[in-house]
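Hey, sorry to bother you again with one of my protein questions. A protein chain has come my way and I'm curious about its shape. It would help a lot if you went through both lines with me. I owe you a coffee for this, so here goes:
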Amino acid sequence: MRIGVPGAETFQSGSLKALILTVLLSVFMFQLLRTVGLRAFSMASETYMSGTHSTAFVTCPNDTVAKDLARGIVEKKLAACVNIVPAIISVYEWQGKIEEDNEVLLMIKTRSSKVPALAEYVRSNHPYEVAEVISLPIDQGNPPYLKWIGDIVPE
């Protein structure tokens, strides 16, 4: 019968379990910690984290619809800025036929987190049966401009 200090095997077994647990936690927590760290660094250093903001594109049948949608989007803080690009030509298939129409393009700068609300607003206020709302994440840009988007559009 042994009484007293545990043997070396017990310490090695405990150390091995601790090492395995540490490695597993590190692997599972890495992405979370990386994201939180990048956000904190981004806020502290005023750098931009890729994908935080997006540019969305919406086509409209005319200037009046484009201006009304643009104004509503900005007033509702769904975007910081909407550019209205006149006189584009769209060629597309609709109901089995190739169509060609003059349209107006909206280029919308917003937070990526606002794209679903933006799409819902456009669907509710657009005359097309199927309104185009597509978005692309902004990878890089002028830091003061990207900061301005974040200042204007709440999370």
